[in-house]
Design goal:
Layout: E1 7-8, H1 10-27, E2 33-37, E3 43-47, E4 50-55, E5 58-64, E6 78-86, E7 91-95, E8 101-102, H2 118-131, E9 137-143, H3 147-151, H4 156-159, E10 161-162, E11 173-174, H5 179-186, H6 188-195, E12 200-204, H7 207-215, E13 223-225, H8 230-239, E14 244-250, H9 251-258, H10 272-282, H11 287-295, H12 299-308, H13 314-329, E15 335-341, E16 347-350, H14 352-361
Parallel strand pairs: 7-9, 12-13, 12-14, 14-15
Antiparallel strand pairs: 1-11, 2-3, 4-5, 5-6, 6-9, 8-10, 15-16
């Protein structure tokens, strides 16, 4: 089995840039590589691409992000750090081009601050402390020239981070993302919704559901991506005392929930056609048509068979079962409704709770 390579976070890049700047300020040495100690004690050797002297008290450093074998969108991106001496002993963090600004409550950083997380801030403070026995004042500005474009491929817009990416990293070490780490990265969406006063939220397993929910004028602030981790996100919502969740998404995903599958990756749980066929049979669909559903290549083909037989009532049964299974999964700690859509985002059917919610949320003419 191949050993996966670790990398370093955007926060570690910024800290390395600060260290290279301080070496240049204090020793007039251009460092091709610096070593920093990550917050978990790991030693990281980070190459320096370029150092630019703006003045004796202000140095800009460029570091290229290396993600190892993690499929990180910032791999190969230039992270610029400008380190400037200032009066006093405060360390001030500023976001330059491509670093987002926090606009919603619920994150580590207050509204109005640059999205430079606590881990990177501490890494940078530790680096500065290596050079001075007494506190010195510095302004640290971090820039990522293509950050605004990169941010469109992240959850930042959902989390309320505008104008660029976040400078992140719990420790500074970037280890290839595990399933557990990815699941945890989804949960802050719930925290942001709670911090902004919402206790009713919408779970969408993918882009189809998100786009359809927005098209139906549902509140963007409560539309939360679950990916395949529907069960995990339901548990996270229940732990946070959320009042209700609407499961809103493609029938191919949510039929799996109706069948009792809460991790919906197709290689782990793929009984969607069997579930649709079973509920169609229970509702009285002819055996020959049930067999067609079982032999279908896609969920869309199954939808066509149901439509040809004018059997759309089965969607309500599937939605009811998905909600029932979901409530059982979290021991009835919150209300749950389900709304099923097709690939074009059109609503196929819903249970009573989902239907009432949809009606309540529709804008009044």
């Amino acid at each position: 089995m191949k050993n996966l390579r670790n990398g370093y976070t955007t926060g570690a890049c910024a800290a390395a840039g600060v260290k290279a700047a301080l070496i240049f300020m204090t020793r007039k040495i251009f460092s091709e590589q610096v070593e920093i100690i990550a917050l978990d004690g790991t030693f990281l050797k980070i190459p320096i691409k370029n150092i630019k002297k703006i003045s004796d008290d202000e140095i800009e450093v460029e570091v290229i992000k290396f993600s190892g074998d993690d499929p990180d969108i910032t791999n190969g991106t230039s992270i610029f750090t400008t380190t400037k001496k200032i009066q006093g002993d405060e360390i001030i963090f500023k976001g330059g081009e491509g670093v987002g600004i926090v606009t919603k409550n619920g994150l580590q950083i207050p509204i109005g601050e640059p999205a430079i997380n606590l881990g990177p801030r501490q890494l940078i403070k530790n680096v500065i402390a290596e050079f001075f026995s007494i506190k010195k004042g510095f302004e640290i500005k971090i820039s990522v020239p293509n950050g605004e474009e990169l941010a469109k491929k992240t959850l930042n817009p959902t989390l309320g981070i505008k104008g660029g990416i976040s400078i992140i990293g719990t420790t500074g070490v970037l280890r290839p993302m595990s399933e557990e780490a990815f699941k945890k990265s989804l949960v802050p969406q719930i925290d942001v919704a709670i911090a902004n006063g919402f206790d009713e939220i919408i779970f969408v397993p993918g882009k189809i559901g998100e786009d359809a929910a927005i098209k139906l004028k549902l509140k963007k602030e409560i539309i939360i991506q679950t990916s395949n981790f529907i069960g995990y996100m339901l548990e996270s919502a229940a732990e946070r005392k959320i009042k209700s969740v609407i499961l809103f998404g493609h029938i191919g995903k949510l039929a799996k929930v109706a069948g009792g599958t809460f991790y919906t990756h197709n290689r782990i749980g793929d009984g969607r056609l069997e579930t649709i066929a079973a509920y169609s049979a229970a509702e009285g669909l002819r055996n020959s048509e049930v067999k067609k559903i079982l032999l279908a290549n896609t969920t869309e083909e199954a939808i066509k068979i149901i439509s040809e037989n004018h059997f759309e009532r089965v969607y309500k049964k599937i939605a009811e079962r998905a909600s029932q299974r979901a409530r059982r999964y979290i021991f009835d700690k919150m209300q749950i409704g389900t709304i099923l859509i097709d690939r074009e985002g059109e609503v196929l059917g819903c249970d009573d709770f989902g239907g009432r919610y949809l009606k309540k949320c529709q804008p009044k003419n």
